[in-house]
Amino acid sequence: MHTILITGGLGYIGSILLKTLQKKNNRILCLDNCNFNNYKIRKKLSNKIIFFKKSISNEKFLKKIFKDYSINKVIHLAAIVGEPACNKDPEYSYLINYNASKKIFDLCVKYNVKQFIFVSTCSNYGKNKKSFVSETSKLQPLSPYSHAKVNFEKYLLKNKKKIEKISMLRLATVFGMSFRPRFDLTINEFVRDIYYNRKLEVYGENFWRPYVHVLDIANFITVLLKKSKKGSEIVNVGKTENNYTKKMIINKISKYLNVDNVYFNKKKIVDKRDYRVNFDKIKTKYNFKIRYSLDYGIKEIISFLKKSKKKEVFSKETVNS
Ligand SMILES: NC(=O)c1ccc[n+]([C@@H]2O[C@H](COP(=O)([O-])OP(=O)(O)OC[C@H]3O[C@@H](n4cnc5c(N)ncnc54)[C@H](O)[C@@H]3O)[C@@H](O)[C@H]2O)c1
User: Fold this and answer.
1) Residue 201 has what pLDDT?
2) Residue 284 domain-assigned?
């Protein structure tokens, strides 16, 4: 039996990861300061999970849990997530996303943790019109959010010998439902706004980005906990066929919903990220198959919207900015 610490475990990805991992025979600790009134989500999860409502910047508390529990593995998800959220207060976001992450890693080294999984982002690739980028491509962080992610990846690479196994996962943009749904993510937001026939202004309609379902991430992390070998690695998490432009996403949604209130704003660019990602490594190294398609996600979101109240899906708790 392992003791696994998951930071940010009550968030959009984290809560689905906890649900997946609680079925296995491990002791799970979850550290989350619950920025989105999301402490209540713990009631939907196993009562065997040990929850701490604390910040990852609370060094004294971090030291205590590393001292009190023999933690073998750490999955580090906690962060100020997304470009708009980080742009609001870049200094604070750097303190959390870089400085506090560094402290957690240093404690992992001190307390002999064997495996460290860091959830990074494909946003690190920034803008690359020409070809598909892969794990070895040049990074071009365009915002405080991706700067902190890139700098922490560098820190891990510099210290890669200090922990037996280190994985840095560059996730595609995530979609799909969770105990903490996020409607500030492209696909989730587009489906919600079209479902409610709200005016949706789409910027950079021909900009590319890769997408991945939240369950595929949880499943891949589960595989990593079991299968990864000694050493450090960077892995893009997604599927090469699931790179789409925003216009392509709107077309897909139009198979399921009437699209009459979408405006393509060709003049304004709000987000410069534009890249296509190659995901061969996750297939060749781990034989991992991405199972959930964009169509699956769109249908899942629609059925979630049918069951939910409008005020819930438009509440502040579902957006990070
Ligand atoms: N969702 C995506 O599309 C996406 C894509 C690439 C990478 N990621 C990465 O995945 C991770 C999880 O993202 P998410 O989409 O679940 O976002 P999220 O905002 O739902 O999850 C982050 C969690 O961390 C918690 N948190 C924030 N600051 C904290 C602090 N100081 N101390 C303790 N907990 C804190 C929040 O309460 C939240 O529960 C992040 O590291 C993010 O950068 C997400």
Assistant:
1) 92
2) no
CB 97 within 8 A of CB 243: no
For residue 271, what pLDDT is reported? 73
| Residue type for position 143 | S
Secondary structure of residue 252 in the 3-state scheme: helix
- Give me 240's structure tokens: 């090469």
Question: What is the reported pLDDT for 17?
Answer: 98
Q: Is 13 in the pocket of ligand 1 (CB under 6 A)?
A: yes
Tell whether ligand 1 has an atom less than 6 A from the beta carbon of residue 55. Answer: yes
Nearest CA to 248 among 201, 206, 185, 279? Answer: 206
pLDDT for res 143: 93
Does 32 contact ligand 1 (Cβ within 6 A)?
yes
Please give the tally of structural domains in the chain. Answer: 2
Whether 119 lines ligand 1, by a CB cut-off of 6 Å, is yes
Do 115 and 14 lie in one domain? The reply is yes
Evaluate: CB of 144 within 6 angstroms of ligand 1.
no
211-260 per-position pLDDT tens digit: 999 999 999 999 999 998 899 999 999 999 999 999 999 999 999 999 98
Q: Give the closest residue (by CA) to ligand 1 atom 1.
A: 174
Same domain, 228 and 300: no
Specify whether 156 is located in the same domain as 193. Answer: no
Dmax of the chain from CA atoms? 57
Contact 273, 126 (CB under 8 A): yes
Per DSSP, what are the bridge partners of residue 242? none
Q: What pLDDT score does 25 carry?
A: 86
Same domain, 146 and 110: yes
Residues 46 and 126 in one domain: yes
| Regions of the chain with pLDDT less than 50 | none
Token pair in block for residue 167: 């994985």
Interatomic CA distance for residues 168 and 3, integer angstroms:
20
Domain range enclosing 94? 3-172+212-239
